[in-house]
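I'll show an entry:

:::
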Amino acid sequence: MIDFSELGDKIMDFFSQRQKALLLSSILAIFFCAALIALIFIPQKREVPSSNFRSPPLEADQDLLLPQGVSIPQDYAVSRETKEKWTEEEVKEWLSVPDAGAVEKLSRANDALVKNITEAAP
């Protein structure tokens, strides 16, 4: 078993014989820590780039070309008058009547969506 009183005596003897070395090393350690803290926390001045830079004036040797504006294709209608009723030709061109299978598939998809929403509701 360790005899702590003997260990304490050895430590006391070690430091009592080397007091000058201990004092000097402690002072050096404190100065080192202070210098390290000063280097880390004291901001260093950095060279700021000069804002006096000016570019030489532009000397155009040709006429400046302006970009073209937005071009609208000829077939594009900016606005149009809406009719109250479609003609038979417009109905055949733009409207497609779904078959019974497509309607049933859409109904099942809607039911599944409603079921998912209502299951998640508290």
